[in-house]
Amino acid sequence: MKSRNSPPAGKVVLLVILLLLGLTFVGCTGIRSSPEGGSGGTVADSTLFLSPTLTSAGGFGCTSPNVNGKLVALSAENGTRFWEFTMEGSTSGGGFGCASASSPAAVYGSPAVAGELVYVGGYSGKVYGVNIASGASRWVYPREGKLEPIIGGVIVAQDRLYFSSADGVVYALDAATGDLQWEFATGGKIWATPAVSGDRLYIGSFDKKVYALSASDGTEQWQYQAEGAIVSTPLVYNDTVYIGSFDRNLYALDAASGDLKWKFPAGNWFWTKALAYNGTIYAGCFDGRVYALGAEDGQELAAVDLESPVYSWPVLVDSRVIFATEEGTIYAIDTATSQATLLADIEETVYAPLCASDGAIYVYSHQQNLYALNAASGANLWSLTIK
Amino acid sequence: MNPWDLIAMQPMINTLIVLTHYLFNNFGLTIIVLTLIVNGIIFPLTLKQVHASKAMQDLQPKIAELQKKHAKDKDKLAREQMKLFRESGVSPAGCLLPLVIQMPIWIALYQSIIRVLAVIPENLVGLSRYLYSWPVVYSTLPLENHFLWLNLASGDMILALLVGGTMWVQQKMVMTPAADPRQQSQSSIMLWMMPIFFAYLTLSFPSGLALFWVTSNIFRIGVQYFIGGWGGLVKTEPGKPAGRDKKYKERIAQVEESPKIDEFPRLEESPEGGADIVVPSETQEEGSSYEESGGKRPDRGGGYPKSIRAARHKPRKGGSHRRKRG
Q1: What average pLDDT does this structure show over B135-159?
Q2: Is the ipTM of this complex over 0.90?
Q3: Hey, which of A151, A237, B91, B210 would disulfide with B159, CB 3.0 to 4.6 Å?
Q4: Between B77, B122, B206, which is nearest A5 by CB?
Q5: Which of A226-240, A367-381, B88-102, B159-173 is predicted with the least confidence, judged by mean pLDDT?
Q6: Average pLDDT score, chain B
């Protein structure tokens, strides 16, 4: 009963495999399955500290990411590499490189420097204190196991290291030893970097709340309920906390009481940290604009259209506010006129916070290239690939 | 934004978010509900496809016979097959067209779930450009990705087994025993390979997606049951008829005992001692079991097996006769 016209089993199997591979391709295309990170730089004593984007490799849109991250120390003047420190990550090893349960040591927030240590925390759920001179690890927190992913950056104030994690907890460690001093749990994930001013720590959470905590013992001082989740880092300026939200508002809250002073509605999410200069708040938005607002009343002074979402933190150089767009255009906004000038176009994706030092701005692209640009002219001083 | 994103992804993503808002911010529940809604909307297409597939399966013995008869003349075989399709009122495209129409919907739903479950900054940033400017969308994001014991953003072993299991059941239900051992072997490969592959794939994808697959599979199992009963899931024991329940046998017995018995097919025991074979009064269909011939279970309001209906309404000689479906 052999039918000559029936397709051979091999063809059927091949067809099934092709269909499934097609499905895998469609599912993975354009969707990143693994965190890649890429921190901004931090400059101290002519040394630039930075954690590069994790590389990925693989076909069919599915990537097989590197899981180990790095903290790299470079010369801020010419990019000469001094040392690199490896941060171990882990992966679940799922099929087709589409594993979603992996914990690579991708770093999103900029490293912090204090004394003889540089600090960095990553998606792998660990925070490190690393010797600035040698690149050797001084301590790691937690010593055993790991926390939920750390998306925000770390900051140092009053000999404490502050950071938050996707478990919704704000942590304060002894900056010298890495010992836990206090922790405070919020009602949602935290992806933001905390801000410290005086004895107050301010942080926004996915639970749509802004919290003010005692920086010394972590006790809650006040909380403010916004209308959307908060991933942006607070800016504290003139006793006011400025913070953007997914509800498309930029909030100005009284730093002492948490009372709302004003809120400014924009066209999309506020993700990046705002910047204050001379009584004006500059806030980049996902609607592609930078809003210049009166710090006291929230009045819109200017809306500068950069035509691409602003994700990266801005920097202030010589009374000019420098913004980078997601598309890689770098603009300088004159604080006197609110006019934007195109400084450079690196034509690469920029997520990492900008960094400025000694008349240079450092832009690290998602394509793993670091650009040192003249802050005044935008001229390329040097550039190199940091992997 | 490309047309695919504009027409498919954007509406789907925003629907998911709004639905989550109204379903107690429970994204797991949203996936289940939206999968059911989408399945409900395209139900007529699914029904059409299942009916068409069933009709094609019913014709398999006849096609096999033609293949045997015209093994050396492919042109003749093609002509005869087309003639058979015409006379039986079966369109081979009827199986594929509804499937093709459904595919973009499934892919959009599938991609939307992955995007909305953004657990890393890169994906959440990407999600922002898909959002409508409705306040509810902005206040609902980001979505909570815990549901029951699941982290909807990570793979889950139990859900992977459920995906594989439900897929196997669904396939087994529509599977018919083939006379040709080669075809039988192909069917067996398909029966096991797809569920195993999807279960493996599920471990690698967010379990939100697996939830969508499981819900879809269960829905389709329901549709399949509604149309064809448990199908190939019911084991045929030697010496026992493969008919599923008493009612079915009673109906067949009624047919056999009816006054117009001459116009009806005879019911015989399978030579292999397996399935009931319904033999039309004029032409005998080898291996035409209930599973192969039954479009709807007689006791479920679907009428008699097709072979019985075919015997009732003989095609006119030299002309096509399209049977009306009950």
Answers
A1: 84
A2: no
A3: B210
A4: B77
A5: B88-102
A6: 70
Please check whether residues A182 and A144 belong to one and the same domain.
no
In this structure, is residue A24 part of a structural domain?
no
Instruction: Work out the minimum CA distance from B212 to partner chain A, whole angstroms.
Output: 13
The residues spanned by each domain of chain B are 3-233, 246-312
Out of A110, A136, A153, a domain closes at: A153
Asked if residue A274 and residue A162 are part of one domain, the reply reads yes
- Please list the residues that pair with B277 across neighbouring strands: B268, B289
Domain hosting residue A41, numbered range: 35-153
**Do residues A174 and A102 share a domain?**
no
φ/ψ (deg, to 5) at A299: -70, 135
Q: What is the pLDDT of residues B162-171, one digit of tens each?
A: 999 998 888 8
Residue matched to tokens 């096509």: B320
- Please check whether residues A104 and A139 belong to one and the same domain: yes
- Judge: B138–A228 Cβ closer than 8 Å, yes or no: yes
Task: Flag if B121 and A351 touch (Cβ within 8 Å).
Answer: yes
Query: Nearest Cβ partner of B110 from A27, A248, A268?
Result: A27
Give A141-186 pLDDT, tens digit per residue: 999 999 999 999 999 999 999 999 999 999 999 999 999 999 999 9
Question: Does residue A54 lie within any of the structural domains?
Answer: yes
Asked if residue A190 belongs to a domain, the reply is yes
DSSP symbols for B212-231: HHHHHHHHHHHHHHHHHTTG
Question: Is A16's CB within 8 Å of B77's CB?
Answer: no
Measure CB to CB from residue B182 to each of A9, A108, A189 and give the nearest one: A9
Last residue of a domain, one of A153, A173, A191: A153
What pLDDT does B237 receive?
52
Compute the nearest-CA separation of A115 from chain B (Å).
31
Dig out the tokens for A110 from the structure.
Answer: 């900029």
Query: Could you tell me the CA-to-CA distances from A324 to A18, A143, A350, B130, B247 in Å, in that order?
Result: 42, 37, 7, 22, 74
